[in-house]
Amino acid sequence: MAGAGVILAATLVLTNGKIWTGDGLAKSVVIEGNRIVAVDGPPPEGARVIDLRGRLAIPGFIDNHVHFVDGGFQLSRVQLRDAATPEEFARRIAAHAKKLGAGKWVTGGEWDEQLWNPYQLPARQMIDAITPDNPVFVSRLDGHMALANTIALQLAGITRETADPSGGTIVRDAKGEPTGLLKDAAMNAVVAVIPPATLEERVAAARAGLAEAARFGVTSFCDMSTSDAYADFRAYQQLERKGDLTARVYLFTPIDAYERLKNAGITKRFGGDRLRIGGLKGFADGSLGSSTAAFEQPVEGEPNNRGLVMPELSNGSMAKWVADANAHDLHVAIHAIGDRANASVLSIYESQPDFRTRRFRIEHAQHLNADLIKRFAADRVIASMQPYHAIDDGRWAEKKIGPERAKGTYAFRSLLDAGATLTFGSDWNVAPLDPILGIYAAVTRRTLDGRNPNGWIPEQKITVAEALRCYTSNNAYAMFAESEVGRIAPGMLADIVVLSDDLFTIAPQKIENVQVDMTIFDGKIIYER
Predict the structure, then answer these.
(1) 277 Rama class: left (phi>0) / alpha (psi -120 to 50) / beta
(2) Is 439's pLDDT higher than 70?
(3) Predicted pLDDT at 227
(4) What is the pLDDT of residues 163-211, one digit of tens each?
(5) Residue 411: CA count within 13 A, CB half-sphere
(6) Residues 6 or more apart from 15 whose CB is under 8 A from it?
(7) pLDDT, tens digit, for every residue of 226-258?
(8) Cα-Cα-Cα-Cα dihedral sign, residues 41, 43, 48, 49
(9) Which whole-number Å values give the CA distances from 352 to 346, 359, 375, in the listed order?
């Protein structure tokens, strides 16, 4: 970096626009190599000048919660997210099976039964006849429920005699036969018999994901990889060695295997500025959409269903893992959706002697009450949330938890007002990777069905600047990288995004149409629209 009062030959200068630094507004930024060397400094002689033409430039987006390689794979798997009828659902699966050829697994999906009118859940009988030669395992959009056809159930050894596993449910019909729907831990039996992807396939999926990330201005992300985390890590390593890792990755691995990192002497955010490990991901419950989120009160219309608590939470294993991992300086993040799950995880964190300094995270933190919101702030636990889910779930959430409990759903405003650290991500491939859609969701809370033009639970809206911080500096803090990324300032890594429109001046309802015009990563332009 240049010394005081001296600017060395720069590679890029951005000028003639509005530059939101994270701390305020500037008119220009000077980049030398992969670092920012000046804000509002004069353009050095010979530098390449990028004329913003009045456009808005911001720090590169950070996605605090993705399933990145899975997202890359999903780009080439069967697409069911917008299959609006059971017939279209079945047609797409049949067409994909034909494309793959006999014997190949049909996976992917992200189906949403809430689109179907009349409402119904899928069953294996919908697809058995049209997939006679292919095992099928397609996930609901939340990843906590999936449909298997009969071939897949047979390969997994699931019959009417198979007992529900701890933390999971095999959905059955009136005669006790499996319908093909499997919830949470019950999915593991099928996952275990699907042939694993090769390293080459994982690298290709990661490349596809990185192209999507560049298109949407995502220059850093926390990958909440689970069962295949170390295989994903090898794919990232290969890309980094070749200089092709065009985003900064902080990889989280399964907490139940934390001793693998502990025994290797690895601690939080171990690695370089492009690839780091040392984060651990655990699960406390399921999801609202699959009616497996753990609540204090039952799901509406299901008096015996308060959701599923993962066995490691109820048997004390999670508390043991967190204590030992924390003692060895590993970084812990736990998925919790329902209020009961959030309370349990906060209690585990509060039992640690140094919990307020550890940047513990709760992934989703979806359904809270006033007491839990206060605890997030007092405990300094990071609320790692995904705003797009609010405008998606808002179409139907009250059918499951009622209007009163819904008031604490995606409580962005309440968390910020309480002084909690709020961070945003996409949960891709569960939801779109595009951070602009997340900002739109947080600022407007206009549900996807158009029924809430003024916002669903509008008192939880936040401002554009607050939403941007949740996608930049707050996320940098959540991945221990606040001195490197998340702001535009001298000495920071040069990750910058140029947008087509000014988020601060356009009507909030138009934010969803804003596009990324340019993505700069590590001082290099990696995407131009």
Answers:
(1) beta
(2) yes
(3) 67
(4) 999 999 999 999 999 999 999 999 999 999 999 999 999 999 999 999 9
(5) 28
(6) 27, 28, 29, 43, 49, 50, 51, 52
(7) 768 999 999 999 999 999 999 999 999 999 999
(8) positive
(9) 10, 12, 15
Question: Would you kindly state where each structural domain of the chain is located, as residue ranges?
Answer: 82-140+144-191, 199-518
Class of domain 199-518: alpha beta
Q: What is the pLDDT of residue 46?
A: 86
Percent of the chain with pLDDT over 70: 98
Of 380, 374, 313, the residue nearest 340 (C-alpha): 313
How buried is residue 519: exposed, middle or buried, by Cβ count under 10 Å (0-12/13-18/19+)? Answer: buried
Q: How many residues does the chain have?
A: 529
Q: Is the peptide bond before 342 cis (omega within 30 degrees of 0)?
A: no
Among 255, 314, 262, CA closest to 281? 255
Burial of residue 114, with CB atoms counted within 10 A of its CB: 0-12 exposed, 13-18 middle, 19 or more buried = middle
**And the tokens for 150?**
């009969």
Query: Are the C-beta atoms of 366 and 337 separated by less than 8 Å?
Result: yes
Distance between alpha carbon 518 and the CA centroid of its chain, in Å?
23
Tell me the pTM: 0.90
CA dihedral 217, 221, 224, 230 (to 10 degrees): 110
Give the burial class of 393: count Cβ atoms within 10 A of its Cβ; 0-12 exposed, 13-18 middle, 19 or more buried.
buried
The CATH class of the 82-140+144-191 domain is alpha beta
